[in-house]
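== Item description ==
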Amino acid sequence: RLEDAGWNYIYRDDIADIQSLPPFKRGLADWIAEEADLKMQHMRIAESFVAVTANYILEKPTPERFAETLLLMFDMLSRIQDSTLPGRPRLGLKQSMISVGEPINVNTRWENCQGNKQALRKGVSELTQDLQVMLEGLIQDI
């Protein structure tokens, strides 16, 4: 919801044609969009470090948790330094397991959103929610 609110300030639906605004009003609209973009960047910095808690490593001090915490800190510092996330450091060999879930039909969702910004935002939000539920289900199955 916060991200949607930010996008609403950046891509204004209430202004039909931004080019037709007087210079002063356009400048204010641009200023609001820049402020919203800055706040979204701050939100992303906070999001990149939200998984780290004081007890995360203490609960289970494994090399994986130390490595994960280091990578999260690396990402956060890279964002603060305004870099576009350079290549993360390689922390050693890893093993992974790939699970394939049920396919999601995106075509019908896309057809329902054509030409309507509100429907498109709602469709993207619902798709994101469905993906999250499916991914969490796949993780629990492991």
